[in-house]
């Protein structure tokens, strides 16, 4: 049996994924979580019970800890659990970041349902399961932003002022403005809003 943990913040999608996978004779849904931090706690709890999931299926955008950050944490702690991202974001930038975070699979939510079960089997065998068109696109254009620039730009795009961003990230306002200026320059746009929109469009945020 392949033990699976599901992380998805939309209750209806989470329920549907769980129900579909429970129809598979070789897949055991060990648990579900509505956000990244809950998924991390559930991973630890199952591990302590001697039932470490073979595969974690997670969305990208969730409250608190994102699916990409969750994948990075799994990788950083050396857990044997392999990660599959299931998302609506058909963007090469997201796929690149997912692979860099250690994810072994990247599927779109509009894929046929049976593809997820097959992807879980493939990843469990040590392979990869990646949307083929995205795989071709992923290496076309590199993400020019570093992690801190990405973090600052994301908060700016959410409407926070330089002072609020500085307080949240424990930086000076001057440092925040420098990061924003660097991001705007790297993306070749006129202001932080255009930078945010372009980076979102490319899948870099």
TrEMBL record:
Domain Response regulatory: 3-124
InterPro entries: CheY-like_superfamily (IPR011006), Sig_transdc_resp-reg_C-effctor (IPR016032), Sig_transdc_resp-reg_receiver (IPR001789), Tscrpt_reg_LuxR_C (IPR000792), WalR-like (IPR039420), WH-like_DNA-bd_sf (IPR036388)
Annotated HTH luxR-type domain residues: 138-203
Keyword annotations: DNA-binding, Phosphoprotein
Sites bearing 4-aspartylphosphate, chain numbering: 59
PANTHER family: TRANSCRIPTIONAL REGULATORY PROTEIN DESR, TWO-COMPONENT RESPONSE REGULATOR
Protein name in the entry: Two-component system response regulator DesR
């Amino acid at each position: 049996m392949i033990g699976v943990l599901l992380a998805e913040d939309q209750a209806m999608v989470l329920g549907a994924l769980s129900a579909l996978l429970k129809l598979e004779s070789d897949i055991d849904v060990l648990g579900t979580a509505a956000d990244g931090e809950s998924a991390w706690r559930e991973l630890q709890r199952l591990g302590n019970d001697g039932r470490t999931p073979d595969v974690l299926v997670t969305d990208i955008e969730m409250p608190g800890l994102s699916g990409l950050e969750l994948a990075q944490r799994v990788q950083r702690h050396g857990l044997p659990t392999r990660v599959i991202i299931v998302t609506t974001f058909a963007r090469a930038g997201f796929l690149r970041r997912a692979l860099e975070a250690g994810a072994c699979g990247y599927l779109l939510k509009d894929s046929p349902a049976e593809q997820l079960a097959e992807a879980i089997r493939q990843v469990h065998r040590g392979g990869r399961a990646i949307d083929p068109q995205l795989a071709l696109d992923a290496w076309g254009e590199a993400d020019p932003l570093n992690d801190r620039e990405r973090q600052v730009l994301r908060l700016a795009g959410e409407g926070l002022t330089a002072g609020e961003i500085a307080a949240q990230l424990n930086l000076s306002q001057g440092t925040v403005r420098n990061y924003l200026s660097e991001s705007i320059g790297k993306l070749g746009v006129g202001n932080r809003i255009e930078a945010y929109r372009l980076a979102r469009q490319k899948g870099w945020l």
